Amino acid sequence: MEQPEILIIGGGPAGLTSAIHLSGLGRSVVLIEKTAYPHHKVCGEYVSNEILPYLQEIGADPSVLSAVKITDLEFTFKSGKRINTVLPLGGFGISRYCFDQFLYQKALEHGCLVIRDQVTNVSWLNGNFVVQTIKDQVFYPKLVLGAFGKRSSMDIKLSRKFIQQKAQWLAVKGHYMGQHPDQVISLHQFSGGYCGVSKVEKDVINICYLTRYDLFKQYKNIKEHREQILYSNPALKAVFMEVTPLFAEPLTISQVSFARKEAVEEHMLMIGDTAGLIHPLCGNGMAMAIHAAKIASELCCRFLKGEIDRAAMEMLYSRQWIDNFRQRIKTGRNIASLLQMEKGLVLLTGALSIFPRILPILIKKTHGKPLKINSNAPQYPL
């Protein structure tokens, strides 16, 4: 096999977007993903419209999918207080089962080689990458992009700082049939967490929530925790009472960490959740993942063309990642902290009741402007 210029570890929205962008520019790309497509993932399945112009430019316009147009936000507190607002940019609801499959097919169409395998080790030896897999394949790419998600065995291999800290969150997701307004994404607060409810394709409702693991462990199972804790919010209880589950059991992921991560590790550019995770209540994780993929792809092209060296590429990526996402993540963390403190909750509820226009301002602080290819970057052939 001819050695690729770029190897991407992980085939979620970030990895697949980079594969589409780079392959479309004629670069040789291999993407390694351990799970066959299509597959379900624990995810809020809401995508901000900020990334639409960019996806259209690289030939991956999701408007051909049966995504649900989302324009409004409903927020409920466990007290029963309800606040509604229009989303500044809006977004669309699409399942990861559908969206990842769509991006995967686009990556193949653009010439990316997608291999079902699992990376076991990445070494940096004498200025070169050596990538090994569980199927005993070995690659020697010029560049490696890490897109392996929130928490991976690769994080342990790299001895990343965040992986050595105990993470306190558990995420739970399921698909349901029932009634929910197409244009509305609902966020419901409860003790120790919050839950998102919105439509995806085929009239399916996605319900995904984040809860503190130490509180969850006090109950026998997901059902008991849901009935004792989530149902304390009357609006959220009404949601569950009126839907029928489509999964035999909800999907879960534990040890979800919002700790700081490095954007570059061992000369690998980290993209998506691998580089940093915004609290799901902000509803902007997939858009941030795709935005990071764009930044990394443009810098990879500059490096391969000899415009910048590796040190400059890594420095620029780290700087741009911080400039674009650090404030968003900080805002999301602060909002989540307020929702977990009784005094902060009272303060936030009162402030939003008196000044409802605060909510769109907070939303804007966790989202970006419409994203387009950098005019100074290599232009994508249309």
Kindly state the percentage of residues in helix: 25-40%
Classification by helices and strands: alpha/beta
Rounded mean pLDDT score: 90
**Total count of strands:** 18
> Helix and strand string, N-terminal first?
EHEEHEEHEEEEEHEEEEHHHEEEEHHHH
* Unreliable stretches: 378-382
Q: What profile does the largest beta sheet have?
A: 9 strands, mixed
Strand content: 25-35%
Radius of gyration: 21 Å
Shape: globular
Counted by DSSP, the helix tally is 11
Distance between the termini: 29 Å
Please provide a written account of the structure.
The chain is an alpha/beta fold and 382 residues long. It is 34% helix and 26% strand. It is built from eleven helices and 18 strands. A hairpin with a 4-residue loop joins strand 8 and strand 9. Helix 9 crosses helix 10 (342-354). It is globular.
Please write out the topology.
Blueprint: E1 6-9, H1 13-24, E2 29-33, E3 46-48, H2 52-57, E4 68-76, E5 82-93, H3 96-109, E6 113-116, E7 119-125, E8 128-133, E9 138-139, E10 143-146, H4 153-157, E11 169-177, E12 184-190, E13 193-199, E14 205-212, H5 213-216, H6 222-228, H7 234-241, E15 244-245, E16 251-256, E17 264-265, E18 268-270, H8 285-304, H9 310-340, H10 342-354, H11 358-365
Parallel strand pairs: 1-2, 1-10, 2-6, 4-12, 10-18
Antiparallel strand pairs: 3-5, 4-5, 7-8, 8-9, 11-14, 11-15, 11-16, 12-13, 13-14, 17-18
